[in-house]
Amino acid sequence: MEWVAGNSKTALNINRYLSAMEGLGFSGAIIVSEGDEIILRKGYGYANRETRQPYTPGTIQTSASITKQFTGAAILLLESRGELSVDDPITKYFEQVPEEKQNITIHQLLTHSSGLVGGVGRDEDPMEKQPYLDRVLAEPLYFDPGTGYRYSNSGYSLLGMIVEQVSGVNYETFLRNDLLLPSGMTNTRYILPDWDPDEMAVGYRNGETWGKVYKRVWIEDGPNWVLRANGGLHTTVDDMIKWLKTVQGRGVLDIDVARRWTTGYVRENNGFSDYGYGWVVYDHNRWGKVIAHSGSNRIFEADFVWLPESDLFFYIHGIRRWSRRQALVEIFCPQLLIRNLQCRHWWKGISNRVRKLPRSEPANII
Asked: How many other CB atoms sit within 10 Å of the CB of residue 44?
């Protein structure tokens, strides 16, 4: 059942804003909590325009790069069991590593400070593990390991390979058995849960049906290695609020491990936020610490935001709409929901129509 807490100004204002965006074409779902209370749980628009299937809190879609926090959690869970260390060099797990890359550590892969290439290939390329690894290791470094920051999907794919090697099972199998199911997350996956395809959102590009990330030129056991462990994990807003307990240290990871997971270690190129183990972390002069991550494949968008000092959380995801003639608002940025928060993925081209909306603009939402 959808829910808007009538006694919460935050819930009422966010719902009013998203309802206005729905009128401009926004399709997605959100869940918001204050403390342990869910104050907003609702879908907007259509998950499938052709069938007029409504977007609900149970609609499934890709979380894109939010997948990285799950990979970070998997690494730390294995470390807590004594099976690896974030200080391990990658030569412990991969053979024939070029000399200039031999000092790269797991910590540097996690924090985008390895100097590795951002990515090789496209999400739709059916690339198996070894060919992908060979291509990544053959690319030149952007800087000496540990001396800079450059966002690298490839680094997280290598982390997924390490998870498989150390655990002895497929990356998704480890996530599902050791992180997701213990967290009560039954609708988060690549291919393992038995989903009804009609529950999945359909994406669009330039007004034409694009389709789904799910099994889009995937290999037999899930996504190809261009995508695996760095993106593409599918979920619902209902599952992601269950994940929040793990992020808070009240779940699979104990509090000390969760704090290490959500600590920022390396300054990003924007000059104000730090990257942790699959998280963007920074301090805000009103809200205090912000622990967040966004995801996008330019078809689907998602944002996870937790403000621990305010005990406020939201997860929002949906379908991005974009054309040269009309740029509808990109709702997936925390900046739209929380006053003055800096956003790493704020897209250009906000529609002039949005500026003409009544007094429900982002600055007044909370």
From this structure: 23
